[in-house]
Amino acid sequence: MGIPMDSNIHAPTVSSGPTSGGIPARDLSKLSMTDLMKHKEKIEEELSALSSVLSSHGVNMGTSLTTFDGFPRDDIDVAQIRTIRAQIIRLRYDHKEAMNHIEKGIHAHFASLQSARDSTATSGTTNGSASLGSEANTPETVMGGIRPFAKVNSVVSGSPADRAGLKTGDAIRSFGSVNWLNHERLSKVAEVVQQNEGRAITVKISRKEGASDHTVELDLELIPRRDWGGRGLLGCHLLPL
């Protein structure tokens, strides 16, 4: 996600008001699941934008803002960076809270389905609700990555992604510990890649076979590497869904 910047990278580019990233405080317990998901996505957009501003300054959340002898650096806008970092910390907390409510909502939904199934079984009635307790409909599988969150837009021949078996058009259901609930506009995928250079990452994908609507689900082992002869650690481009 790019952010237009002029020649003065120290010019204020984000608000520094009392709310986290400009998102007003909300009582999450009163939001529907749909509104919770929209709220989560809004937070992720704000986090992505703020991270881009930090990158434009050449810093991240862990970069030192002082010189070796303890004085504030004069090559960056220390005050703005501190403000942005504080907003990111608040937004991360807000995102965690939203995730907690989403997970509770999912579990409550499936608990209700389970209760309905048990009630049907007790009454001796056999109908379609008997399948509600199947593995494909459990909270664990839904939260664990059944729903795709990214699509493979391109794969470079001979790259780690290519060797793992990824193909253009594949839908990513989970990337290591990252899934549709926590990918934060794919920023978490980048973190997993950086943290696992040289180590295998399990990537769960869905792939359409030929011109048919038949879809297969595959588990691939992807090893991020720098020495494969191209740019980046993966050699592929992902797009959020």
TrEMBL record:
It holds the Pfam family PDZ_6. Residues 104-209 form the PDZ domain. Residues 119-134 have a biased composition (Low complexity). Keywords: Chaperone. InterPro entries: Nas2_N, PDZ, PDZ_6, PDZ_sf, PSMD9. One of its GO terms (biological process) is proteasome regulatory particle assembly. The keyword Disulfide bond does not apply. Gene3D superfamilies: 2.30.42.10, 6.10.140.1710. This is Probable 26S proteasome regulatory subunit p27. Residues 1-27, 117-139 are annotated as: Disordered. One of its GO terms (cellular component) is nucleus. Belongs to the proteasome subunit p27 family. The keyword Chaperone applies.
